[in-house]
Amino acid sequence: MPPKRKSKKSEVFTLQQAKDYLYSRNHAEASKALWMNCIITLTHYYKTIDGSSVTTLTKAEQFEKYKDVNIQPLITDADKVIDLIMNKIENSTNGKSIALETKKTYIAAVQRITDPGGLKVSKEVQDTYEDKYQAIAKESTDIRNLNAPKAGVEKHPDFSWITAVTEYNQFLTEASFTNTKVGKKNLRAAIGVGFYVFMRPRRVQDFASLMYYSKRPSDRELEGINIIYGDGDKLFMSIDKFKTRFRTTGRTNKKKEVLPRFEKELNPRLAELLKDYIKKDNIPDMSKLTTTQKRAGVAYYILSKDEEHKEGYDDNSFSKLISGFLKHIFKRNGLSVNTMRHIYNTFIMSNVQLFNDKKMKEISIEVGDKPREMPTNTRYRTVDPKLADIEKSVLEGIIVDNDYAKKLMEGNAEQAGSIQGVAKDDGEEEVVSGEVRQVPQTDNVVDEDLNVLYTRLGEATMQVELIKSMIAKKLIF
Prior knowledge:
- The N terminus is likely disordered.
- Helix 2 crosses helix 6, helix 10 runs antiparallel to helix 13 and helix 10 crosses helix 15.
- The strands form three sheets. This protein has a four-stranded mixed β-sheet with strand order 1-2-3-6, covered by helices on one side. It has a two-stranded antiparallel ribbon with strand order 4-5.
- Strand 1, helix 12 and strand 2 form a beta-alpha-beta unit.
- The chain is α+β, with helices and mostly antiparallel strands.
- It folds into three domains: 133 residues, no CATH class; 194 residues, hpI Integrase, Chain A, CATH 1.10.443; 120 residues, no CATH class.
- It has 20 helices and eight strands.
């Protein structure tokens, strides 16, 4: 009878060895530190038997705690590692699942410690990690393409802010909002798009987790949440959690306020839609939660994934939801939240004669940008960069008179038009008309980009009365 073979001992590869190997490689120091932090966090989740990941330890302290832990059984189990990354590891700041790009970084970190000379894993395990990395990378790219500010506009150059407002109001007039499957779908779409048409369009995350309160909570309760609340017959919005709300300073990561909490009465038409939806869908009133429910963290969301309104949307899924609503209402593919922000910013920049500095500051804050950031944000620029100085002059309120226009257009043929001035800083409008005379064409080729700018400004002046009328009727703003 042949002797029994001794079972092969599993290879030992400690967290300390992972660090030594990683820091011996020819990678950027910042990348090494980032990947090592990912491996430390994975080890922490791996060794946390009771499933609780909460810790007050710093990464350095966690490393000291786990440096002798053999991570070989974990890293060679690709399914377990991927499950931890995709479903278990949470953002320490908000308790939510880590972002897609962060998940990709975790996979990359595991791949780096299994490079030649590091922890040995089978080709099957290597392929599993690589397949997951590529899948995450593709999903991330798809989301970026979906949210590309100009994507929808490039597909549909006719889709402007005025077009959106007009077609949205037409939808409200013609669509059925009865208590049927179709009616409820129309109502949800009308509300979702209404946040980006009946209000100055903010970022995705500002509306993704909206809750309903029948009365205004205390200022303390409003901290860190985004809600719709009632006050008599009116509805108001309070947005306290958004990208530009705070910034952290110094080594202590102390929060410093950048923009105040955004609080404003809703457009009456949007308020009516919401009241109808709240009633028909039996959306729970957060102001009526018991103390026990509050302590348990019970939350109900206006736009939710489930019928009980308990499951809210993360930023990515909410972005896709709104894109579906935009397609439903505007009958165009490829529109997104960022498309709406883009066409709104283009509208503002194309009609600067309606807004003084005080109004521009108000608009910037309401869309969630730092004051003056929006008008000069290069992602939303609609003319060639070489015309930046011309556009900046217009945006800053310089009156374009005859001499200035002639100087700008020297060597270019341009049709006559009327360009108006801007409002004064004190809020009183001053309109100055100036004729842009035709300049004989020289041997130079007409600058098409300059033509675009002047055509746009010419069209803007013709829209002034229309826009003022729409503002008065509360169709916009």
